[in-house]
Amino acid sequence: MNRNPEVDAWFERYDNPMKAAVQRVREIALAADPRVTEAVKWQAPTFMYKGNIASFFPKAKMHVSLMFHQGAAIPGQHPLLEGEADVGRSAKFVSLDDVERRRPALEAVIRAWCDWRDSA
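Request: output the structure for the sequence above.
Response:
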């Protein structure tokens, strides 16, 4: 995985009841495709590959919230992504079990982003 020490440090300070689930989403997103990197942007971990893929909304305490900045443009059908906005979409996970159950869908979105960005 392409872990960033800045994000590791962010997680050390992160105090949230959903921390384990947020960390698991991070692991899955980074492992989904070797092209994915991460950084802290907008005071939250952000996944990147030829642009910003998605950022956590760290203040959510009842679920993990991951904002896909250009989620509406990612090719393919991705039921994981919610929303009606012209550009952004979000993914929400209500528990660690939910993260594991929907892991294949998250991996598919990450891979679709990377493939799309390579074809652009």
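The chain has a mean pLDDT of 95.
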